[in-house]
Write a structure and sequence with these properties.
Number of helices: 14
Structural class: mainly alpha
Order of helices and strands: HHHHHHHHHHEHHEHH
Length: 431
């Protein structure tokens, strides 16, 4: 303190010094916060990069051993893009094949390599769609948390119990199909359609159906539905009946208020419905080798590779079912989630009751819609896991027994999924 200053002057200096100290502390805190934020962002980008490398490598390697790839690669090589009508008649779900054809033409690589590149990139696209969908719908998550659980989502499989299911996939199924390229092609489109549609119908319901479906989103979704048919029509086989079921439920609940919304959704589905009908005729009644039409054959295909369909489904859906229960207890189940589970119910119905006639009976082609619906309820479950235990909605550090039980079950699914990849790639099995 300077000598000769009045008491008032001394107090002024002390106040100035305090203010300077507070500003310095705030500046230091701000710098520390920015440093911590950069560190977290760095970790998040590192997890994203590692996840991308892992998933692309898995997609590439499994393409080299997947038993479904050979016939699809031959179709890709035989395509005639200059004759779209003839191409569609010959192979009515050509998206993956066209992409592979383009990679072969552009890079002059072998078709097996092109197939691996295309499937690897499509798996990365699915990862990206899931990442941005979770980030948009669940606030307060760190980048590395979303990226890590997104990676887990795309590696899990049915819980492997050697004394029950000697083969990891056959009989049980998996949310992550590695051996079938057309399913890999349709999955990112299916997830995007599900996220957009769930958002539209939930918003319409919240607004008591006064505004209906936004025209722009409806047009985009209609185009995506057509694209999904061109990739593999199995998604719309569960999407159409699920959206119809939801609208009927709401017609009853809301005494017809959602009728306009239901009509708008039907018009949205109409273009892809026309495409699917044409695909159906070509695939099952177009005289293709091995095709003899469709028959009702309860449990014939679903029970061919398992001693218990119910146990196999439980091994596949243990984590989603547990998270559904936990979310119900927390009252955080939305109509969008219910929509996803309705798709699974319809997928299960088609899988249990329908089969192809002729030599393709046990190919399980009515199982693909079920598998896509399984992936969607897995996406819902992982999103709930992040929302309930990692987001800003979580209060304190007491996550409870539900978190530890869910984490244990999820770990079992993840270990089984990693084993399944080893089974495919390093043990030389096709599925």
């Amino acid at each position: 303190m300077l000598p000769g200053l009045s008491e008032e002057g001394k107090r002024g200096i002390m106040i100035t010094e305090r203010q300077g100290s507070l500003l310095l502390i705030r500046e230091v805190d701000s710098r520390m916060e920015m440093t911590e934020k950069r560190r977290r962002n760095g970790i998040g980008w590192a997890v994203i990069a590692a996840s991308a490398a892992i998933l692309f490598t898995c997609g590439f390697l499994t393409a080299l051993v997947g038993i479904d790839y050979g016939p699809h690669e031959q179709i890709a090589l035989s395509l005639t893009p200059g004759d779209p009508a003839g191409l569609f008649r010959e192979h009515p779900e050509p998206l993956w094949h066209l992409l592979t054809y383009m990679v072969v033409r552009l890079t002059h690589c072998r078709v097996e390599i092109a197939a691996g590149i295309v499937s690897g990139c499509l798996i990365l696209l699915t990862y990206a769609v899931a990442y941005f969908a979770i980030r948009k719908t669940v606030p307060g998550l760190e980048t590395h948390e979303i990226a890590a659980l997104d990676l887990v989502l795309h590696l899990v499989s049915a819980i492997y119990v050697p004394f029950f299911n000697k083969e990891p996939f056959l009989g049980q199924g998996t949310p992550n199909i590695w051996h079938n390229p057309t399913t890999i092609a349709v999955r990112p489109i299916a997830l995007l359609i599900f996220v957009i549609t769930a958002s539209m119908v939930v918003n319409a319901q919240k607004e008591e159906f006064e505004k209906g479906i936004p025209a722009g989103r409806a047009v985009v979704t209609a185009l995506l539905l057509v694209l999904s048919c061109l990739a593999k029509p199995s998604f719309v086989q569960v999407f159409y009946p699920a959206i119809f079921t939801l609208m009927v439920i709401w017609l009853i609940m809301y005494k017809g208020k959602n009728l306009r919304t239901a009509i708008q959704l039907f018009l949205m589905c109409l273009p892809s419905l026309i495409v699917m009908i044409f695909q159906f005729v070509v695939a099952f009644y177009g005289g293709k080798e091995g095709s003899g039409g469709i028959m009702i054959a309860p449990f014939v295909v679903a029970g061919a590779r398992t001693n218990s369909i119910a146990v196999s489904m439980l091994l596949l859906l243990a984590f989603p079912l547990l998270m559904l229960l936990i979310a119900a207890i927390h009252r955080s189940v939305t109509w969008g989630d219910i929509f996803g589970w309705i798709m699974l119910i319809w997928g299960t119905i088609w899988r249990l009751l329908l089969a192809e006639k002729g030599e393709r009976t046990y190919h399980g082609n009515f199982t693909w819609g079920y598998m896509l619906a399984v992936y969607l309820v897995w996406y819902i479950a992982v999103r709930h896991y992040l929302k309930l235990y990692f987001s800003e909605q979580m209060t304190g550090n007491k996550r409870g027994i539900g978190f530890y039980l869910a984490t244990l079950v999820l770990a079992l699914h993840l270990i089984s999924g990693i084993y399944y990849l080893i089974y495919l790639v390093f043990m030389g099995h096709g599925m």
